[in-house]
């Protein structure tokens, strides 16, 4: 028996297209993002999502999930453990504005994201820990089934690193486009296999 979780990044938003940090802002999908998720639904037409669809709580992940769920007639539920990283003072700012307002924070985030730590903000290790707990619950409750989990770039990167056995220092090596799909497969022996899904 194999249990499969398909990880998806939400569709594109205006912030993605304008090089802004959306964070936990209530930004909806851009029309381009809606088209990306309709393509995701098309790709998954022949993949019965017997475990349903789980998404982060923000509007852009909920909307992404609802597009796929509507196209495939699959129920959707939200789970806070797949929420975006909490960096509230960056929300809605362009990367240039972050550099101007907060000095070395953004260069540190780019160069050593695994060491990035600010008061009142989440670290990558904290994001990874909560997201892995969420995914392990999905593996248990959805044993033998296929579940789609829709989240954010940072969350998906942290999950892929964990299930590939790679350190958070390799964070920038993981490329995940909007609407991209990654398959996580676990056999009865507990072995994990990670693959990019075209």
Report on the structure:
The chain is of the alpha/beta class. The chain has a single domain, classed as Rossmann fold (3-Layer(aba) Sandwich), CATH 3.40.50.1240. It is 39% helix and 19% strand. It contains seven helices and eight strands; from the N terminus they run βαβαβαββαααβαββ. The chain has a six-stranded mixed β-sheet, sandwiched between helices. Strands 2-5 form a two-stranded antiparallel ribbon. Helix 2 crosses helix 3 (59-72) and helix 6 (124-141) crosses helix 7 (153-164). It is globular and about 50 Å long.
Labels describing this entry:
single chain, two-stranded antiparallel sheet, six-stranded mixed β-sheet, 7 helices, 198 residues, alpha/beta, 8 strands, Rossmann fold
Brief summary of the model shown:
The chain has helices at 14-18, 31-43, 59-72, 95-102, 105-111, 124-141, 153-164, and strands spanning 2-9, 20-21, 53-55, 76-78, 93-94, 146-151, 181-187, 192-197. The chain is built from seven helices and eight strands; from the N terminus they run E-H-E-H-E-H-E-E-H-H-H-E-H-E-E. Helix 2 (31-43) crosses helix 3 (59-72) and helix 6 (124-141) packs across helix 7.
Helix content bin: 25-40%
> Segments where pLDDT lies below 50 for 5+ residues?
none
First-last Cα distance: 23 Å
Annotated CATH homologous superfamily: Phosphoglycerate mutase-like
Classify the oligomer: single chain
- Identify the CATH class: Alpha Beta
Q: C-alpha Rg, in Å?
A: 16 Å
Number of strands: 8
Structural class: alpha/beta
Question: Biggest sheet: strands side by side, in what order?
Answer: 4-3-6-1-7-8
Largest sheet: 6 strands, mixed
Q: Overall pLDDT, averaged? A: 96
Number of helices: 7
- Secondary-structure element string: EHEHEHEEHHHEHEE
Shape: globular
List the domain count as a whole number. 1
């Amino acid at each position: 028996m194999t249990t499969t979780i398909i990880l998806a990044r939400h569709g594109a938003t205006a912030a993605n297209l304008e090089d802004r940090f959306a964070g936990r802002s209530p930004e909806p999908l851009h029309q381009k993002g809606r088209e990306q998720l309709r393509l995701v639904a098309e790709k998954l037409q022949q993949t019965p999502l017997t475990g349903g669809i789980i998404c982060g709580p923000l509007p852009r992940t909920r909307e992404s999930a609802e597009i796929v769920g509507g196209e495939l007639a699959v129920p959707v539920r939200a789970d806070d453990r797949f929420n975006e990283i909490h960096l509230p003072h960056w929300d809605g700012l362009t990367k240039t504005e972050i550099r101007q307002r907060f000095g070395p924070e953004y260069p540190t985030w780019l160069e050593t994201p695994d060491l990035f730590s600010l008061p009142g903000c989440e670290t990558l290790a904290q994001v990874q820990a909560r997201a892995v707990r969420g995914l392990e619950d999905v593996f248990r409750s959805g044993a033998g089934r296929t579940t789609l989990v829709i989240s954010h770039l940072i969350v998906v990167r942290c999950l892929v690193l964990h299930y590939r056995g790679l350190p958070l220092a390799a964070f920038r090596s993981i490329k995940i486009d909007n609407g991209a799909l990654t398959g996580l497969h676990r056999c009865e022996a507990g072995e994990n296999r990670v693959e990019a899904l075209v």
